[in-house]
Amino acid sequence: MTAPVFTSRHRRAIFFVLVVLFGVQSAITYTTATTVSDARATYNEAATRGADLYRAFNCTACHQFYGLGGYMGPDLTNVTSAAGKGPDFAKGIILHGTQRMPAPGITPPQADDIVAFLNAVDATGTYPIRHIDLTPWGTYRSMHEDSR
Amino acid sequence: MRTPADRDPAKLFLLAGLLALWCGALFGVIGAWQHVIPGVVDAISFVKSRPLHVSLVVAWIFLGAVGGVYHYLPRLTGVALHAPKLARWHLGIFIGTGLLIIASYLAGRFGGREYWEFPPVLGIPIAVGWLLLVYNFFRTAAKRKGPWPAYLWMWATGIVFFLLTFAEAHLYLLPGFSGNAVRDLTVQWKAYGALTGSWNMLVYGTSMVVMERISGDTRPALSRTAFLLFALGFTNLLFGWAHHIYPVPAASWLRILAYAISMTEWLLLVRMIRAWRGTLDAGLKQRHSLPHRFLFASEVWVFINLGLALLISIPAINLFTHGTHITVAHAMGSTIGINTTILFASVFFIAGGMLTRSARAGFWIFNSSLLLFWLCLVGAGMVKGWLTVTTDMAFQPIMDKAWPFIAGFAVSGIGLFIGLTLLVRHAAKALLSFRTAEIESTSQP
Q: What confidence tens digit (pLDDT) does each residue in B101-133 have?
């Protein structure tokens, strides 16, 4: 009788190798794979406070960054640099709300911190991607661009 | 008089899970209508109803899957659960923490993360309770003689990786892990992508066990195919997460790797298509059995969702679908269509629920409403995705164009809730009348 191609020992070895590779990939993801080239994208003190406030008010229930988050409100990745919007526009909405978004009860200094956070997010890149330049591999060119 | 059956941890887990599912579905209906008509329910805001819905449905998946593990493990190993008392402690901690999470939402205190979020301090008891499961599982499973079938590997992997990814989801609390939005988003979706893979391991392992217990054939779970499928799922759990973040400017190799890994799942789809005739014949033959019925429905939902997942994992298509309701369709199809139907199959297999008229009605209302719900989400996503990428239209005018689909999604959500109510009621009645006193002393491998 021939031996099976994969014994329990082989299975354990494959499992172990996959877990080790996962550990390596995680370490790189936490460090060099997620650095940002633009210094403005690194959170300063105000942006760090703004990020905390963004979480505390659960803004992600309705809003997105890079298409990740809730679906009730618009994506905020570039809200502070988009034509016709900007930091003052963002601050006004944060303070007073809109017809569809009730005013969340944020104070003006808190709104400044959230705007600082939004500015830092804005400096990381652009979303949505509108310059559609597809490759034969089913990807798009800007997906391959890497400033690291 | 209280009997040991009244304190059976598996039964209590499943009953608590059914209650969480029903409440989660109710908040889902409220949230869906708030999405269509803002302010329609004033008593609770959308920022509260959304996490209530998500957390309760996630709780159902964990309670249903873990309850199944506690129930089946003694039967698969031939020995009693190592420490039933610790399992009851696990349940108590999980429910207690769940109530605190609900109270924190109602008080306006959030974790603010996407999507299973709560004040991070409440993650500590959840992890402690989970450690009790780790201890109980490995002490009990170690007593099994012979090689482990694929479902024990799946459960073991799901249990361990839940803990790892749950810890990873809280790394943002440490300095250096949230210093920029790219890292914050990438690590967040890495953790939650793999966390979802972990609970899928628990649920798919349960599906394999139910099939084995029904057929009495132990060979499929020890076959090379079963282990290849496990390896495929595990590789996707570890390295496929970055298909959630194609537009995020993290290192491009992360995203290309995830694309390549995700495409390996075409093997699953091709295998399903090739086996489809046999699956259909078996499903039709066994349609009078509730567990079979739900397992067959889960196969259909796996097929539909896997097809969608594969398409939206192709970056050129993802460019249009990312951040739209198509992603929601995929999430709902997976958690309701696949996970919930498998867990219902497991609950009905354990409790032996009969195919009554109300169970049949519940089954059909549930599945037909879910299909309409899913199609409406796909429709809304197509409108939003196309107009967002190809035009400069603002968010609200785009959503106005998608409104008919979103209204259809909210209406079908009511149907889904009615179907779920009938099924939850039937399952809870079956569980309450089910006696498990003999399990601990007469378990068989």
A: 999 999 999 999 887 899 999 999 999 999 999
Q: Cα(B317)–Cα(A138) distance, rounded to whole angstroms?
A: 8
Shortest CA distance from A117: residue in chain B: B181
Neighbours of B256 (CB within 10 A): 17
The DSSP 8-state label assigned to residue B334 in this structure reads: I
* Domain positions in chain A: 40-122
Task: Round to whole Å and give the CA distance between A27 and A5.
Answer: 33
Please judge whether A130 and B389 are an interchain contact, meaning their C-beta atoms are less than 8 angstroms apart: yes
* Dist. CA B266–CA B377, nearest whole Å: 23
Q: How many Å apart are CA B145 and CA B139, to the nearest integer?
A: 13
A40-122 classified as CATH 1.10.760.10: yes
How far does Cα A55 stand from its chain's mean position?
Answer: 13
Determine phi and psi for A65, rounding to 5 degrees: -120, 130
Cβ-Cβ contacts under 8 Å between A and B: the total is 180
Residue among B111, B179, B251 whose CB faces A146 most closely: B251
**Residue B180 φ/ψ, nearest 5 degrees:** -150, 160
Name residues 116-175 of chain B within 8 A of A (Cβ): 117, 147, 153, 168, 171
Which residue among B47, B245, B249 sits closest to A124, beta carbon to beta carbon? B249
Euclidean distance between CA atoms B2 and B34, whole angstroms: 44
Which DSSP state fits B110? -
Dihedral pair phi/psi, residue A3, rounded to 5°: -75, 145
Cα–Cα distances in angstroms (integers) from residue A20 to residues B177, B232, B404, in the given order? 21, 16, 49
Angle (nearest 5°) at CA A64 between A60 and A65: 115
Helix H or strand E segment including B11 = helix B9-36
| Reported pTM | 0.93
What DSSP string runs through A28-42?
Answer: HHHTGGG--SSGGGB
DSSP B37-99: STTS--SS-HHHHHHHHHHHHHHHHHHHHHHHHHHHHHHHHTS--S-HHHHHHHHHHHHHHHH
- Tell me the C-alpha distance between B326 and B380, whole Å: 7
Interface confidence (ipTM) of the complex: 0.94
Residues of chain A positioned with their CB less than 8 A from the CB of B259: 138-139
Quick: pLDDT tens for A50-101. Answer: 999 999 999 999 999 999 999 999 999 999 999 889 999 999 999 999 988 9
A15 part of contact set with chain B, CB < 8 Å: yes
Distance (Å, whole) CA B178 – CA B106? 27
Cα-flanking dihedrals φ and ψ of residue B208, to 5°?
-65, -40
User: Does residue B269 contact residue B229 with C-beta atoms inside 8 Å?
Assistant: no
Alpha-carbon distance values, B425 to A27, B150, B171, B403 (Å): 47, 32, 40, 33
Give me A67's structure tokens. 């298409």
Query: Which phi and psi (to 5°) does residue B140 adopt?
Result: -75, -45
Please give the structure tokens belonging to residue B265.
């799942």
